[in-house]
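Pasting two entries for a bug report.
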Amino acid sequence: MIKTIVSHARPLGILLAVTGWLALSSHALSAGASFAGTPVSPGGTVRANVPLSDLEKSYVAEGGNPVPSHTVAVLGVPRGFDPNKSWPVLVVFSTSDFKIQNRDDLKNYYAPTAISEGWVVIAGDGPEPAPRLDTSGWRAGHTLAALDALNRSFPGSKNWPIACAGYSGGAKRAGLLAPLLAVGGYRIIGIFLTGMNVDTLTEGYSQYRPGGSFLRTKIFLSSGTEDKVANPQQHIAVKRSMEQKGFVNILHRQFPYGHVVKKSHIQEALRWFRSN
């Protein structure tokens, strides 16, 4: 009987040792990872200045904007982040109102939920609070620069699945620019749109032509029943417009409030995007 106990204890001890080693290795990987030279903060966000490519400079110059020296990229990663694994990435867009930047909405609305759900979250902006003209090209160029920095920092991340998210005017940006990211080779698995009163997704689809498979992208529409900025009738019209264009995976959820972001809908959308 003693021999039997000892023989089982040894494999158990080995298993515990291996489990502990794997846990330490995972922690070491996340602790040693860096984004554009800045150590990542598992469970939190970091900020880094990253360069713009010639193409990205041409985007941000839209409307006569002066081209800044760099993009300010903000990245958040989950606890236990291992850059050798595949992670879903949430790209955040904000409205132009009140000089709000993408990174502001990342912090205020998306990062805590996305990170806790095992998502990487990212945003790119210019170094100043607002450009001379806050164009979609300005948002696109800085977003692409942030994603380029992600790809340089973590080889293989170009193949990670991506979702786009936006609130109010940010939803319009996300709808317009998600097809552009798809044309750029990114695998778009979902688009979260809340407080949206105009369908820009069909416009982006027609402008950038990402292909018929893009019409199967999951789209989560979130709207407040008391919203006076993007009222329920407008959300229904947005959904109908997308359906007429050929989008087939649209989920519309309502909540009993006004023009705000319902964070439980962010969680629901992110889980849906990752599902089969």
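Entry 2 (this is the one that rendered wrong in the viewer):
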Amino acid sequence: MTVSTVTAGVAATAATVTLLVLRWFTRARRQPYPLYGYAGLGILLVAELLLFRRVEPVTTYFTPIAWTSYLLVVDAAVFALRGRSRLRSPEASGPREFASLAVWSVPLWLIFEAYNWHLQNWMYVGLPEALWQQALGSIWSFATIVPALFETTDLLLALGLFEKASARGWRFWLGRHNIMVVVGILCLSVPLSVPTEWAAYLFALVWLGFIFLLEPVNLARGHDSLLRDVWQDRGQRLYCLMTAGLICGLLWEFWNYWAGGRWVYIFPILQDWRVFEMPLPGYLGFPFFALEFFAMYHFAAGEVGRLRKPQPAPRKK
């Protein structure tokens, strides 16, 4: 990778963070910024220092450390703006939902790891030799994915982005739910049905498949659904979620690039046009990646919630 592409990635990351911070300072705050946010920022800065000094185990586990710190920083920012957040809410449901996001994040991401066995789009390097250490780092990292996407979306909503956005451009899919399900099945099955040398080019279908497959199901089953937002012509959450995917994608690649234990992309597309480890066109997938995890999480959590809901007792004859 050339220095210029790394420089461009660092510049893009710095510009994104700067714009978010400046926007945060222009918004009215309901609460002071809480101490755990400062703690998260402090942990991140210390971890960065130790990373560049190549101090273990921080170097190997830098990615989950950075994202845990990020979650504290961003959740604290949301709390300051809204007076409530996923980690700090008057009701117990807030922290419980955050825990649910972290728990579900692991098996949901493992679905994509399973796809990667066949598609061979990325691999991991610099992992510790001991299996338990690999498992610790992997589970910890995977558990931050969904919380990061949702917390970043919360922050963008609290910052007032896309407040008047319309969702009319997405109304084509309303009433075509059966078509969406069929498209989703095809997107998820075709990459697995062709040889690896062809499947390696088809991962974009996987990043779209669960959106088409599960959004109509979520709507029909009464789970949270972006199709309901589209029906009501509310585009703010949809666009904030997509923007959050792009922001998280940029930060994932930024922090991953210097980490000891990291992933590298091996899919055969534009490897000479990389920003950090990601070929440039790959960044276009992150907004849809966020939509996909939204659909997957609300389907999984919603269905489990249905099973746990107490059933009414049968009437006596």
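Dev reply: Rendering is fixed now. As a check, the viewer should reflect this: The first strand starts at residue 122 and ends at 125.
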